[in-house]
Structures are given as structure tokens and as C-alpha cells.
Amino acid sequence: MTEDKKYTKIQELTYELRVEDVMIKKVITVSPKETIYSLREVLRKNRISGTPVVEKGKLIGLISIEDFIKCLAEGEMYAIVAEKMINKVKVLFADEPLVHAVEKFDKYGFGRFPVINRGDGKLVGIITKGDIIKGILNKLVIDYHEEEIRRYRASHIFEDIVSDRTTLSFQYDIKSNDFDNAGESATKLKKTLRRLGIPPDIARRAAITAYEAEMNIVVFTDGGKLRASVRPDQILVEAVDSGPGIYDINQAMQPGFSTAPEWVRELGFGAGMGLLNIKNCADKMDIKSKIGKGTHLKAIIEINYET
Amino acid sequence: MKLKEIIKELNLKVLSATGNLDVEVNGGYVSDLMSDVMANSKKGDIWVTLQTHQNTVAVAVLKELVGIIVIGGRIVEEGTLKKAEKENVPIMVTELSAFEIVGRLYRSGIG
């Protein structure tokens, strides 16, 4: 099971792409009346190992280099294609997802499948395993290129913006007691910071700061906001809520001190370590709090590109 | 040691992110307190816990842990598995207690 799921991106692509996206559209065909001898020329000239047999636009068979070799061995070079071709041809429809093609290649072990229109049954293309690989690789290259452009744009933003002072600001709204989504803002912030080219260690410290601040809002308040203001030299993480406020900040900073209710502690929160974690991660930290009014936490993480 | 080797050796049941098991496990951490894990776990650690709520995934992502081992055969919440799948965090379940599984991890050379 684990091996199957290993190439999930590729699998995703095989569902996303259709047979017509990767097939060869210019199909070399032969007429059923041609001789095996002239088939040889067709295969040789086009460097292909097999070809559909078409009569009046309709697919009636398939003939390959193997059939040619058989005829060669048996001295039947002037037999006609119609006599030697495979009549019952397995085909693919142009609008089928690529994964069907992959399954058919696996199932039948053929080298190629003609592709026909679902509506009129006309031959519109041909597909080999190589075409599938090429198609997927092309799509991967396109996706990768788009991702690269996105990253490039983001990580050079500070260089590209011309100003005396640039600050990028991100705000996340945090709901009270929403333990299911708690931590999501910190996760998003970390991803954003990495996109901006912030060094991993700095992004990690900012994310831990944001996480603990976010959890405090979730556990203790009616909801609030988490804000990150990113400058080329520092990240300011702020958490703002409108109550209830911290009674004694010094006490709240003590490791293990917590006013969290029992059920919250059972979930593994409210262990009385949050503010301390922030203090340890930030270069500067400041809390202003008023009972009944709310709390405003500020933590600064300096960006040092050498670390 | 690779995560997939640990899974095999310790007979863990993988519930999410089965495509992300070919990763090196650098060490381990055991705790049920989120802030403790945030403060003290290290990148590349495997995390042993009894917690099964969604926040564990956020913690694992933020700390770049290679996976979460849930102990005592606990049922993992659906929302947690969804999030774990999205963030590509392997969640594994063992029937053993924290003490026993950690002992085995240590004996396997993790730590």
C-alpha cells in the first residue's frame, strides 16, 4: 500500500491528463491493401514499430514490426496487410483519463494503442508508453516552472520593492475555543515566511512564537488577531485580543503557571509554558494587558541571514 | 533509520501520509503537552503522544517532525487524519503504552 501511494503527484497527473493531451496526433497509417514489403518502408522511414490500419478513415486493424518479422521468416513479403494484421484492436478514447491508458498498457502488454473519438469512432491519434512518460514529464516541468516563478517572485520581494522602508503585514483571525483550527495561523505564517526567503531557523522561531500566541487567544479569550509585520531586518509578531486580560504578567511568565481549565489541559494545552516559549524564541518580547480590556503581545525576531 | 523501517519493525499502523514514509528519523520526543513539544522537540524527531486532536498536526508541521505515534491503540479523530493527509504528516498507531514503544524505539537505535 505504501509503495502504491509513493508517487501520488504522478498518479494525480494521470487522472488530470487525458489521453488526447499526450497522444501523437499525426498518425502514420497504412491501407489494408498494402503489401508487407511496402509496410517495411513505412516503418523504417518513420522509425516506428507498428501502425494502425485504416480504411476510409476508420480503424480496422493494427500491424507491427513483429508481424513483419513473422512474414519475413516465412517468406511472405508480398502478402497484404489485411491478411496479417490484428483485427480485434484494443483502443483508447481521446477523452479518457490517462490512468485508463496506464491500466490498459499494464493489462495487455501492448506497445501502443490507437486513439479514437468516442462519438464517430474516427482514428485521431496513437499512444505509446513513451508518450505517457513524456506527457507527464512535460506537465511536471510546467508545474515546477510555475512554482519556481512563484517562489522567485516572493523571495525577491524586498529587493523588488523600492522604498525607504518596507513592511509586509499578514493578519490571521483567531476564534475562541476553536481547537480544531488552532495552530493553523502559525502554520500559514511559517509557510509564508519561507516563501519570502526568510531563513528556516528564523521562520521556525517566528512560527513557535505565533503558535503560542495563537493558542493563548484560543484558550483564554473571545477571539483575536495574530499579526506578523515583516521587514528586511526583523519580524514583529503581535497577538491582540479584547479580554479578559492577564492579572499578573510576571506570574504568567513563570514556567508551569496556568489558569487554563482542566478540560483544556487534558488536550495538552495550557501547560503554563507558552509565554516562556515565546520569550525563548523572540529577541524582544513585550506584553501589555489590562483586566477586562485585553492583551497586546509583541515579539520581535531579528532576521540575520548569516545564521 | 528510515521511518518505514521503524513502522515495519514496531508493527505500527499507518493512518495518514503513506507517501511520506521514506524519511530519516533523527530522534524522538515523548510528551502530551503541546508547548513542551513546541519547546523541546527537534526537527526530524518522531513524536510519541496520546493526543489525537488536530492540533498535533500543526505542532508536527511547525516543528518539522517526521511523524506522530499515537499510543494505546487510541482512535484518531477524522479531522486530524484529514489535516495530516493535507500536511503530509504520517500518523501511526501502536497498541503499546508510551513506555513500551519508546523502549522499543530506543532499542532500535532511535535517540
Nutshell version of this structure?
The complex is a heterodimer of chains A (307) and B (111). Chain A starts with a helix and ends in a 5-residue tail after the last strand.
Layout of secondary structure:
The complex is a heterodimer of chains A (307) and B (111).
Chain A (H helix, E strand, L loop, with lengths): L1 H4 L2 H9 L2 H4 L13 H11 L3 E6 L2 E7 H9 L7 H4 L7 E2 L4 H11 L3 E5 L6 E6 H27 L1 H4 L7 E8 L8 H12 L4 H21 L2 E8 L3 E8 L7 H4 L9 H5 L7 H8 L2 E7 L3 E9 L5
Helix pairs in contact in A: 2-7, 10-11, 11-14
Chain B lengths: L2 H7 L3 E2 L12 E4 L3 H7 L4 E5 L5 H8 L4 E4 L7 H10 L3 E3 L4 H10 L4
Parallel strand pairs in B: 2-3, 3-4, 4-5
Antiparallel strand pairs in B: 1-5
Task: Describe the fold and architecture.
The complex is a heterodimer of chains A (307) and B (111). By secondary structure, chain A is an alpha+beta fold. Chain A has 2 domains: 2-135, CBS-domain; 164-302, Histidine kinase-like ATPase, C-terminal domain (Heat Shock Protein 90). Helices cover 43% and strands 21% of the residues of chain A. Chain A has 14 helices and 10 strands. In chain A, the strands form 3 sheets. Chain A has a 5-stranded antiparallel β-sheet with strand order 6-7-8-10-9, covered by helices on one side. In chain A, strands 3-4-5 form a 3-stranded mixed β-sheet. A two-stranded antiparallel ribbon of chain A has the order 1-2. In chain A, a hairpin with a 3-residue loop joins strand 7 and strand 8. In chain A, helix 2 packs across helix 7 (98-108), helix 10 packs antiparallel against helix 11 and helix 11 (200-220) runs antiparallel to helix 14. In chain A, 32% of the residues are buried. Chain B is of the alpha/beta class. Chain B has one domain (3-107): Udp-n-acetylmuramoylalanyl-d-glutamate--2,6- Diaminopimelate Ligase, Chain: A, domain 1. Chain B contains 5 helices and 5 strands. Chain B has a 5-stranded mixed β-sheet with strand order 1-5-4-3-2, sandwiched between helices. In chain B, strand 3, helix 3 (55-62) and strand 4 form a beta-alpha-beta unit. In chain B, helix 3 runs parallel beside helix 4. Chain B is globular.
